[in-house]
Automatic annotation (TrEMBL):
Listed GO MF terms: adenylosuccinate synthase activity
Binding-site positions, substrate: 300-306
Listed pathway(s): Purine metabolism; AMP biosynthesis via de novo pathway; AMP from IMP: step 1/2
Main location: cytoplasm
Organism in which the protein naturally occurs: Pedobacter gandavensis
Protein's name according to its UniProt entry: Adenylosuccinate synthetase
Function, in words: Plays an important role in the de novo pathway of purine nucleotide biosynthesis. Catalyzes the first committed step in the biosynthesis of AMP from IMP.
EC code: 6.3.4.4
Cofactor or coenzyme needed: Mg(2+)
């Protein structure tokens, strides 16, 4: 019997999960998304082509790998159809090749869930979360409130009535907001997309994944967002609405905790965040702007500028603890190529104390990062493909992080393309 390896983000998302899942997918028989929805934007680059996936797992370009959208994911049928249409137009048709299956128990994002998301953010004004406005929060609210519609419901004869009942409830809530909307077009697109997703095989993800394990096949669970956006352990309320941590892979696929194998924790050589909320190491200056420009730090889903800052070791330690990370993956080292000196936050000064953890009151009192200066490598690393070619100062940065974090760095990414990846151990 095999186990499920997990790959997830240790920061605030956009660490490069899509790229690395694609790189690792030849080692796996199944790639499974376990939470989140089209708030995710996972970018892959190979052979001079670039793809952004929102709902479809990032193993989709590998010939032999199956891909599952798990029960913990919330699915917008319109977006999923568009993703599949785009893939088909680029010569990849997972429906024709039978490489994509979808969990019956995954919940559906309705057009009115998006309206509720937008109405709520509008009302919050300057205190808004900075949601991607994909309807994620309201859909998970209906899931836990036991009102939601699931993929499996689409084949029931009374699906339309169930839909109408939920939409009536949403309209009533919307009537309490000063919020104008017109549902006609979106609703037509929704029902067209529902018909389309009926053609994707529906499975019970718990039996499906455990069946792979029983057959001795290899499974990788692909996280979305990042640990610091976790609904329980992130910087609440500036979080998403799912468990982005390893525990989420258990509930989001239907696997027992003792079936978890390796946990790959992925992080950038610096740090970014998109949307509102605390970010202790944020650089609100020309250094931050430099990171944003060199790293092309603009959202894959919404195009918003990402906030940028130095690497945050207390936050990474927290994420490693929560997830049981066994191996680290460091991304975007090349973005730091031009810096004479880079910095790493080792502690925070907070309420007169020096601490090395994320405090509960991080929302109301900004911790001051204690920074350690690290000599830059001043070398273009984007073309290196041997471990021996890694500049000494970059190797020293990695060793420093491994010592602080007490977990080895297994892969190093030096550019967005599949081939710009080095295996260190
Ligand atoms: P994800 O949400 O974790 O999959 O990450 P995103 O795709 O949202 O954001 C990562 C961005 O960085 C994408 O534009 C990737 O193409 C790009 N990227 C990934 N790895 C590297 C790297 O090592 N160097 C550089 N320069 N870009 C990278
Ligand atoms: P990937 O998988 C970065 C952020 C939003 C917002 C907060 C809540 O590409 O790493 P939501 O739409 O979930 O209600 O937004 O979470 N957010 C992400 N930030 N990467 C993501 O996904 C994100 N998904 C949501 O910006 O601050
Ligand atoms: Mg992303």
């Amino acid at each position: 019997m095999t186990q499920v390896d997990v790959l997830l983000g240790l920061q605030w998302g956009d660490e490069g999960k899509g790229k690395i899942v694609d790189v690792l997918s030849p080692q796996y028989d199944l790639i499974a998304r376990f939470q989140g929805g089209p708030n995710a934007g996972h970018t892959l680059e190979f052979d001079g082509k670039k793809f952004v996936l929102n709902t479809i797992p990032s193993g989709i370009f590998n010939e032999k790998t199956m891909n599952l959208i798990g029960n913990g994911v919330v699915i917008d049928p319109i977006i999923l159809k568009r993703e599949l249409d785009n893939l088909r137009a680029a010569g990849h048709d997972p429906i024709a090749t039978g490489k994509l299956v979808i969990a019956r128990k995954a919940h559906l994002i309705l057009p009115t869930h998006q309206l509720l998301d937008a109405a709520n953010e509008q009302r919050m004004g300057k205190d808004k979360i900075g949601s991607t406005l994909k309807g994620i929060g309201p859909t998970y609210m209906d899931k836990t409130g036991r009102n939601g519609l699931r993929v499996g419901d689409t084949t029931l004869p009374d699906f339309k009535e169930r839909y109408n009942k939920l939409v009536e409830k949403h309209k009533e809530i919307l009537s309490h907001y000063e919020f104008e909307y017109d549902l006609t077009e979106k609703e037509a697109a929704f029902f067209e997309a529902i018909e389309f997703i009926k053609s994707i095989p529906h499975v019970d993800s718990e039996h499906y994944v455990n069946g792979f394990l029983k057959a001795g096949k290899k499974v990788l669970a692909e996280g979305a967002q990042g640990t610091l956006l976790d609904i329980d352990f992130g910087s609440y309320p500036f979080v998403t609405s799912s468990n982005t941590t390893t525990a989420g892979a258990c509930t989001g696929l239907g696997i027992a905790p003792n079936k978890i194998g390796n946990v790959y924790g992925i992080f950038k050589a610096y740090c970014t965040r998109v949307g509102g909320g605390p970010f202790p190491t944020e650089l609100d200056d020309e250094v931050g702007e430099n990171l944003r420009q060199v790293g092309h730090e603009f959202g894959a889903t919404t195009g918003r500028a990402r906030r940028c800052g130095w690497i945050d070791i207390p936050a990474l330690k927290y994420a490693i603890m929560l997830n049981g990370v066994t191996e680290l993956i460091m991304m975007k080292a090349d973005v730091l190529d031009g810096f004479d000196t880079i910095y790493a936050c080792t502690h925070y000064e907070h309420n007169g104390e020096t601490i090395d953890y994320m405090p509960y009151d991080i929302i109301s009192v900004k911790p001051t990062p204690v920074l350690k200066a690290i000599a830059g490598w001043k070398t273009d690393v984007t073309k290196i493909n041997k471990v021996e070619e890694i500049p000494a100062n970059l190797a020293a940065y990695i060793t420093f992080l491994e010592k602080e974090l007490e977990v080895p760095v297994k892969y190093l990414s030096v550019g967005p393309d599949r081939v710009q990846t080095l295996e260190l151990i």
